[in-house]
């Protein structure tokens, strides 16, 4: 069965919609800057420079809860592109998030600890599953909802879950992706792990020190042929492969040899029935932490051998948007296929000594991008890979 | 039948862990109820045990007690609120800390998928590993994933759910829910397989805008070719929206209040003595408009 991608939506520090993202990628314009808020001003982060109220007004949202939910609604709305509920189609929404409504609870909880008045009813917004419900309300979809929370691989896993449900005939059409707002909780979390770079992050560079955090959401719409016949949507790409495997090495670190990542990449190729040589671009997880990039490089070398496809991490554009990254990067994968581009791995100077893998350092027009492989790796050793291909 | 239940284990406020039948020592919970903890040291190394919050302890122990001679070929976990104790601890750490250096332990263990990740690490398991967090239907969505894994040909699938109560939740309770039931913690894990072993999960479905719940239940039974008279027991949470079932029991009086308690209802259904050809229906209607239906037989 073919799974068609018929819509995409993205919001992050490099754009409020897909076109703005594409422009930033072409112009090699990063959105990572000094933070705008008391909790972010000490760091370089990928913040979206609009307040919650500005987001609600600008995108005419019904949602009015956590920032995570607002970002989800914006990207999902762009992806759904005016489609509507249809009685003959089983439509679902599967969203990934790691922080949920933490952007609200952390403010309330601070007031609680400081013995200031705090609004207990606000904690309702904390729930991880709320963003999926808000998207359903925003799009007018009454169907299956699910939220996946596997840290930084959440969106990739949401995409995979959607595909599997379609293969089993449980859904005809599904909006899948991920969302995370930048929160004080995650800034301090990554700071406590000492994998924060105070300068611009440098994925796959020998001198890399850590990541820059970002925020955003990325969603795509998957449809089967029955759905296409009804919605008359134009396919942008196909979703061909997916996989999730467990590294089972450490709660936050990846195994140095990239065991889980190798499993995940290999299995996704198997699901897609593709040879490694048919992959024309890899959008790597590439967080720019010393551990991730080494581990991922080893896995790429193990699977692709001597002929490594063009690859890059786009984290130096957007920052690491955590649970949203797999969704935003799926959008980048579709753009690569549609327009025949591979995107720059910004801030790269020297290859990693152990692996010597050279990423694409300039955004380049290429003959053809047939298939894109996109990695997302999360805490808990959660390794996911999806493969998008031309229609 | 979508999948058979090969093994099921629960740790919570009932004396249910490694019992022949969880109904034998079932008690209605009072306000002062406590977790009935087994000896975690038998399952978790001392160094990890010190670090692990209550939800990690009960979930990992229940999961490991389900282990058999073969490696699990998929792990699917549902949790609504995840690792709350570590989440609160890390909030306190960075809000109250005077120092610029923060201990990362609570942050590392605060993500919702710490539970499923820690299980994979304890078992050295490299299989599919998923965490579903759809609020009061987190267990059902994890179960739907587990059932899909069995349909995909996997034969030893670990499915479970866990949630924990922290004192701060008691403070929030009046603002969030109207209920006399105590807030509790619980973990239930089960092994699903296509191998015929006693009872199994016939089907599971979720609905998020359930305005006509009795109609939803009728349609669910019809879809599975089951007559209402074949339901020997209905286990429900929240307002019971149906008169179907020879006997109806509110399972929350045994579990207390936590979002993924319907996993324990599967344990109750599995151990309930029913005649051949009859079934147990689980109706999770904890939250208005949100409906989880699971059929066990």
Task: Describe this entry's structure for a reader.
The complex is a heterodimer of chains A (391) and B (297). Chain A folds into 2 domains: 4-231, Thiolase/Chalcone synthase (Peroxisomal Thiolase, Chain A, domain 1); 243-381, 3-Layer(aba) Sandwich (Peroxisomal Thiolase, Chain A, domain 1), CATH 3.40.47.10. In chain A, 33% of the residues lie in helices and 19% in strands. Chain A has 12 helices and 14 strands. Chain A has helices spanning 18-26, 52-58, 67-80, 102-113, 130-139, 154-167, 184-192, 225-231, 259-272, 290-304, 315-318, 325-339; strands at residues 4-11, 33-34, 44-45, 91-96, 144-148, 173-180, 216-223, 237-246, 281-283, 310-312, 341-342, 364-365, 371-378, 382-389. In chain A, strand 9 (281-283), helix 10 and strand 10 (310-312) form a beta-alpha-beta unit. The longest helix of chain A has 15 residues, at 290-304. The mean pLDDT of chain A is 97. Chain B is an alpha/beta fold and 297 residues long. Chain B folds into 2 domains: 3-193, Thiolase/Chalcone synthase (Peroxisomal Thiolase, Chain A, domain 1, 3-Layer(aba) Sandwich); 200-296, Peroxisomal Thiolase, Chain A, domain 1 (3-Layer(aba) Sandwich), CATH 3.40.47.10. In chain B, 31% of the residues lie in helices and 23% in strands. Chain B starts with a strand and ends with a strand. The interface between A and B is large, with 61 and 57 residues.
Question: Which terms summarize this structure?
Answer:
heterodimer; A: 391 residues; alpha/beta; Peroxisomal Thiolase, Chain A, domain 1; 2 domains; ten-stranded mixed beta sheet; two-stranded antiparallel ribbon; 12 helices; 14 strands; B: 297 residues; 10 helices; 31% helix; 23% strand; globular
Question: Sheet bearing the most strands of chain B, described?
Answer: 10 strands, mixed
- Major sheet details of chain A: 10 strands, mixed
Output mean pLDDT of chain B: 96
Shape of chain A: globular
| Helix fraction bin of chain B | 25-40%
């Amino acid at each position: 069965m073919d799974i068609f991608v018929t819509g995409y939506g993205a919001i992050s520090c490099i754009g409020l919609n897909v076109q703005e993202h594409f422009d930033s990628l072409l112009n090699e314009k990063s959105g990572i800057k000094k933070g705008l808020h008391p909790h972010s001003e000490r760091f370089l982060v990928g913040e979206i420079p609009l307040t919650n109220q500005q987001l609600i007004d600008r995108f005419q949202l019904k949602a009015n809860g956590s920032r995570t939910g607002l970002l989800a609604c914006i990207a999902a709305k762009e992806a759904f592109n005016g489609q509507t509920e249809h009685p003959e189609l089983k439509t679902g929404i599967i969203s990934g998030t790691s922080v949920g409504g933490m952007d609200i609870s952390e403010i309330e909880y601070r007031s609680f600890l400081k013995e200031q008045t705090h609004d207990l009813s606000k904690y309702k917004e904390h729930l991880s599953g709320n963003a999926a419900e808000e998207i359903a309300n925003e799009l007018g979809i009454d169907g299956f909802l699910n939220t996946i929370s596997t840290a930084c691989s959440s969106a990739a896993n949401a995409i995979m879950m959607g595909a599997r449900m379609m293969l089993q005939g449980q859904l005809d059409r599904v909006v899948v992706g991920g969302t995370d707002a930048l929160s004080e909780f995650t800034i301090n979390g990554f700071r406590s792990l000492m994998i924060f770079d105070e300068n611009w992050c440098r994925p796959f560079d020998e001198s890399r020190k850590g990541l820059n955090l970002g925020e955003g959401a990325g969603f795509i719409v998957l449809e089967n042929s029955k759905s296409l016949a009804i919605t008359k949507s134009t396919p942008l790409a196909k979703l061909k492969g997916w996989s999730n495997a467990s590294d089972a090495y450490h709660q936050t670190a990846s195994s140095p040899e990239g065991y889980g990542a190798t499993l995940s990449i290999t299995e996704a190729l198997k699901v897609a029935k593709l040879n490694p040589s048919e992959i024309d671009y890899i959008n790597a997880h590439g967080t720019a932490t010393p551990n991730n990039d080494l581990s991922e490089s080893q896995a790429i070398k193990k699977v692709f051998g001597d002929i490594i496809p063009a690859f890059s991490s786009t984290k130096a554009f957007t920052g690491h948007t955590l649970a949203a990254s797999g969704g935003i990067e799926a959008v980048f994968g579709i753009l690569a296929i549609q327009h025949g581009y591979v995107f720059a791995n910004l801030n790269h100077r020297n290859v990693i000594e152990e692996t010597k893998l050279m990423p694409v350092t300039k955004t380049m027009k290429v003959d053809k991008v047939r298939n894109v492989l996109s990695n997302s790796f999360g805490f808990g050793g959660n390794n996911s890979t999806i493969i998008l291909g031309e229609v | 039948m979508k999948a058979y239940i090969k093994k099921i284990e629960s740790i919570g406020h009932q004396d249910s862990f490694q019992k022949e039948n969880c109904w034998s020592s079932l008690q209605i919970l009072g306000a002062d109820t406590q977790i009935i903890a087994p000896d975690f040291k038998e399952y978790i190394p001392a160094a990890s045990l010190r670090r692990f919050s209550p939800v990690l302890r009960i979930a990992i122990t229940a999961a490991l007690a389900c282990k058999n001679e073969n490696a699990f070929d998929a792990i699917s976990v549902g949790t609504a609120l995840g690792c709350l104790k570590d989440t609160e601890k890390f909030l306190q750490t960075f809000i109250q800390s005077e120092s610029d250096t923060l201990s990362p332990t609570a942050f590392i263990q605060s993500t919702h998928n710490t539970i499923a990740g820690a299980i994979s690490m304890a078992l050295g398991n490299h299989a599919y590993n998923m965490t579903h967090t759809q609020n009061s239907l987190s267990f059902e969505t994890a179960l739907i994933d587990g059932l899909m894994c069995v349909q995909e040909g996997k034969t030893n699938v670990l499915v479970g759910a866990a949630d924990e109560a922290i004192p701060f939740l008691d403070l929030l309770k009046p603002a969030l829910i109207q209920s006399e039931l105590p807030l509790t913690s619980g973990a239930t894990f089960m092994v699903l397989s296509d191998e015929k072993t006693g009872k199994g999960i016939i089907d599971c479905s979720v609905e998020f805008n359930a305005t006509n719940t009795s109609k939803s239940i009728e349609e669910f039974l019809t879809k599975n070719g089951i007559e209402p008279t074949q339901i020997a027991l209905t286990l429900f949470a929240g307002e019971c929206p149906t008169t179907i079932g020879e006997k109806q029991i509110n399972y929350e009086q045994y579990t207390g209040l936590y979002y993924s308690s319907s996993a324990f209802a599967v344990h109750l259904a599995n151990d309930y003595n029913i005649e051949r050809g009859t079934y147990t229906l689980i109706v999770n209607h904890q939250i208005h408009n949100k409906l989880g239906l699971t059929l066990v037989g």
